[in-house]
Amino acid sequence: MKYIFYFILVVIFQSCASQVKPVLVDSEMETNVKENLAYYLYYPEDYLEEPDKKFPILLFLHGGGESGDSLITVKRNGPPKLIVQGKKFPFLILAPQNPNAKKWWNTRAVKQLLDSIVGANRVDENRIYLTGLSRGGGAAWEMAVQYPETFAAMAVVCGMTPLPYASWINKQMPIWVFHGEKDKSIPIEESETMVAKLQEMGYEVIFTKYPNVGHSAWVKAYETEALYDWFMNQELKE
Fold first, then answer.
1. Using one digit for the tens of pLDDT, what is the confidence trace for 57-76?
2. Which of 82, 85, 86, 140 is nearest to 110 (CA)?
3. Taking every annotated instance into account, which residue ranges of this chain make up the domain Dienelactone hydrolase (predicted)?
4. What sign for the dihedral angle of Cα 117, 120, 50, 125?
5. Which of 94, 200, 203, 225 is most buried by a 10 A CB count?
């Protein structure tokens, strides 16, 4: 019996040894990811009147509620809403729409769109501004991390923050953060923690908190006239 057991073990061992060993293969594949971005593009009144002048541009990223395939919803909030109400801005405004109702912004696609618009218009590349609210605010933080040499200033309204990557943001870029203290969708602690971290590292950050305001802090934030004056005073620093 002992010899039979030994024989079985030998057979099992040889069977295992004869199997193909794991191999690590070096290879690569070129991927091609496309995103169809509808957008609004606003021109200031004097754009055509001053053909030799270059203008700043503000990239606005909307929240999750405006995502989808109906571009008109982008006019619900932020600068597009104010434009519909008759407000005039001294810079171009690019407002793309995230076509994915339940997905994060494709920030690489947004950057490609921005580059295309900048290249096709008289834009001062040292005065490209960035802003976003809610899901778009989180995407604005992400773009500031990914493209630290692009934006001259950024304003974020109630956005989720990439705290571990705070040091990747351009330290020369001024930042203005807005948040409602009663926000239940994205707690104000998101902004408080990020602002504290940035200030600790020497960043220039303005933090505006709205008492008794929930997730809709963007209403007050984008009606703040000083915000647009602040943007106009910023220029990309090397």
1. 999 999 999 999 999 999 99
2. 140
3. 115-216
4. positive
5. 94
